[in-house]
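Tip: read the tokens left to right.
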């Protein structure tokens, strides 16, 4: 498995699992690039978009641009790519922990516990730019990426589930370098002083810009 892969102009809704799931395995060592453009995911029982690489098969230069993501049952965007060069831009994400959706093929959805964007420690260098995020039940952006840039984003109403430590616009942990610039982050549910009142969490991370 290798080369350049592109997913464009799709709508994935009402699936029993993730809306879009990309996963590689160690028995197929390689490197490949993945781009997603105008991918719309809505009301799936798992994550909205899930991309998972491995040490033997990394996903390099991942791009996600455009699209609407909302009302999925877990993280809207989950990335674990074992590489850098990751770039997310121009997406509209919406969710609400209090929302209930009746799906005639499945059962009534339970209350969702959703982080908008979840970046694991296996993401080396990530840029999140020009996204619109509203009404996440947990953190708007949760990152353990080695390097993180968040710029020109609008993140509102994060943490509506009211779970302590998960009511922040941006939560960055264990990062070597974090740059946050030109964002509007408002009306978060974070009231714990140790979490800087919900706007930006930094723990064992280095803040390079603000």
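Filled-in amino acids:
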């Amino acid at each position: 498995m290798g080369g350049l892969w592109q997913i464009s102009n799709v709508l994935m809704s009402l699936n029993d699992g993730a809306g879009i799931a990309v996963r590689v395995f160690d028995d197929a060592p390689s490197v490949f690039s993945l781009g997603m453009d105008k991918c719309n995911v809505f009301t799936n029982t798992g994550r909205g978009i899930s991309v998972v690489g491995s040490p033997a098969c990394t996903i390099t230069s991942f791009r996600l641009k455009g699209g609407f993501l909302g009302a999925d049952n877990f993280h809207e965007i989950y990335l674990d790519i074992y590489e850098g060069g990751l770039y997310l831009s121009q997406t509209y994400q919406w969710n609400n922990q209090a929302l209930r959706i009746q799906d005639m093929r499945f059962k009534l959805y339970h209350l969702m516990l959703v982080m908008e964007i979840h970046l694991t420690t296996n993401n080396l260098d990530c840029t999140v730019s020009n996204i619109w995020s509203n009404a996440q039940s947990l953190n708007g952006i949760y990152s353990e990426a080695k390097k993180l840039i968040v710029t020109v984003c609008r993140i509102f109403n994060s943490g509506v589930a009211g779970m302590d430590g998960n009511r922040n616009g941006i939560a960055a942990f264990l990062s070597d370098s974090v740059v946050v610039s030109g964002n509007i982050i408002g009306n978060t549910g974070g009231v714990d002083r140790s979490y800087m009142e919900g706007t930006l969490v930094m723990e064992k991370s280095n803040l390079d810009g603000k």
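Residues 96-112, 190-199 have pLDDT under 50 and may be disordered. Residues 128 and 150 are 5 Å apart (CA to CA).
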